[in-house]
Amino acid sequence: MSRVLGIIGGGQLGMMLTEAAKKMPEHISKVIVLDPTENCPAARVGAKQIVADFKDKNAIVELSLQSDIITYEIESGDSQVLESLRASISVNPSPGTLRIIQDKFVQKTFLKDNGIPVPEFLSIESLEDLKRKIFVVWLSCSSKGKT
């Protein structure tokens, strides 16, 4: 049975997913991407495109109405909207996984809690918090925004 694949994000990874899907017509009949950049890379290789922001609720719902399965190639999707759609459409990876990867502190904590090695990390909530904690890690630190 051939299905329609919806992808949130039509950048380079969306383009590669589209190219791979075109080689499997017995499984994927069509690819639709949601991306704010008109004529994004995935659209240039044959995906139909919905031009809208990655977090646009109405656009995500529209993508779900046109697709049989949704995935994402960018962390910017709205996990709450995707969660609300799970009763009517398959979303993989799950919206819960998206929530984890959207917050880098939550992501690192999840990995550590599941026995996956990660470098030392701290949550910095303010400039004062940074000033207090910088000496804990001293020169072996890098900064990554939580979201």
Summarize the structure.
The chain is an alpha/beta fold.
Mean pLDDT: 90
* Helix content class: 40-55%
Poorly predicted regions: none
- Highest CATH level, the class of the largest domain: Alpha Beta
Instruction: Count structural domains.
Output: 2
What is the name of the CATH architecture of the largest domain?
A: 3-Layer(aba) Sandwich
Radius of gyration (Å): 18 Å
Distance between the termini: 38 Å
CATH topology of the largest domain: Rossmann fold
Shape: elongated
What's the helix count?
7
Biggest beta sheet attributes: 5 strands, parallel
Widest β-sheet, arrangement of strands: 3-2-1-4-5
How much of the sequence lies in strands comes to: 15-25%
What is the tally of beta strands?
A: 5
Briefly note the structural class of the backbone.
alpha/beta
Instruction: Output the helix-strand order.
Output: EHEHEHEHEHHH
Could you give the topology of this structure?
Blueprint: E1 3-8, H1 12-22, E2 28-35, H2 41-44, E3 48-51, H3 57-66, E4 69-72, H4 79-85, E5 90-91, H5 95-102, H6 104-113, H7 127-137
Parallel strand pairs: 1-2, 1-4, 2-3, 4-5
Helix pairs in contact: 4-5
Overview of the structural elements:
The chain has 147 residues and is an alpha/beta fold. The protein folds into 2 domains: 3-102, Rossmann fold (3-Layer(aba) Sandwich), CATH 3.40.50.20; 104-137, no CATH class. The chain has 7 helices and 5 strands. Helix 4 packs antiparallel against helix 5. The model has no long low-confidence stretch (mean pLDDT 90).
Task: Quickly list its features.
147 residues; alpha/beta; Rossmann fold; five-stranded parallel β-sheet; 41% helix
